[in-house]
């Protein structure tokens, strides 16, 4: 099957520092694909470039063969690629449902104010329906009216995924979704991700929790110092001498 996402010679420079240096990899449709590497390897920068947060200094990013690099985030989202952030609750003061409604407007109507105030009745009802379906999918249906900031940590993370899912993406980029989770929350989140993948959404995930990454991903890309270091199935990556060396030689150790 042709890849849904292609990163082709991506380069990101910040002044004199090259954070990502000619990185190429592709993500097959319908899989959970991991992007790993020691601290400072360039993973978050890569995510920011793919999702339209940064304009690449060089290279090209393609979604289903169409160039998306250089497009703004809302346009990238409209085309079907949505990301979550490391600290993913969008609006702590809004209710769970209102947060999910904002997710639907990432692609259907980029006007946040209209999203929250709901100037147009039919569109608002439709957005609420999509938002409710997303909350239901992630097991948050009973908490629609709670303030997002009051949710337990694991539920806040699930809400971050529901907000992304409400946008109706073909591929989601998850940035360290297991940070701060206890083992039980991690397991619950892994089940949600598999459910998301099984619903037809491709997942690209940056994560330091090696146990979770190895258990979840069909394929893993490992980068180091901005470059591709190794790529393969979890077992190949776990046993790859360059990967072991990169982790042991750096400040971060694989669990
Ligand atoms: N906006 C920026 N301006 C300048 N340098 C940056 C910027 N963003 C990232 N960098 C640098 O680029 C390099 C890659 O950083 P990045 O955050 O992408 O790595 P990472 O693999 O996500 O690390 P971590 O696992 O610690 O989150 C680092 O040296 C970092 O200091």
UniProtKB/TrEMBL annotation:
GO molecular function: ATP binding
Ranges in a coiled coil: none
Gene3D superfamilies documented for this protein: P-loop containing nucleotide triphosphate hydrolases (3.40.50.300)
Highest rank taxon of the organism: Bacteria
CDD domains: ABC_Mj1267_LivG_branched
Nucleotide-binding found in the keyword field: yes
Residue ranges constituting the ABC transporter domain according to the UniProt record: 5-250
InterPro entries named in the record: AAA+_ATPase (IPR003593), ABC_AA/LPS_Transport (IPR051120), ABC_transporter-like_ATP-bd (IPR003439), BCA_ABC_TP_C (IPR032823), P-loop_NTPase (IPR027417)
Keyword line: ATP-binding, Nucleotide-binding, Transport
Protein name per UniProt: ABC transporter ATP-binding protein
The species this protein was found in: Paralimibaculum aggregatum
